[in-house]
Amino acid sequence: MRPTALIRNMLQIEYLQEELSRQMRVVKQELRSQGVTIIEIERRSLDVRVWYKVNGRHYEALFMTPMLHAEVEGVFHRWLGETPK
Fold this sequence. Notes:
The protein is of the alpha+beta class. It is built from two helices and three strands. Strands 1-2-3 form a three-stranded antiparallel β-sheet.
């Protein structure tokens, strides 16, 4: 790959990092405003289990890892017009 292509790639990744950091701040603020507190996150190969509480009540959620990965790839595709390698 040409140096200019690598530099372009680096700049795109820097932008993505900044945008992801910004979006994380927004999501965390929204969780706080809704009274949601994350208690624990357990990451396993096939799923992610999250224990959290909302206004003092405890809950548990299970997210399938392959589905989360597919959703992230969709976001990358929309942002960059390509899937991550």
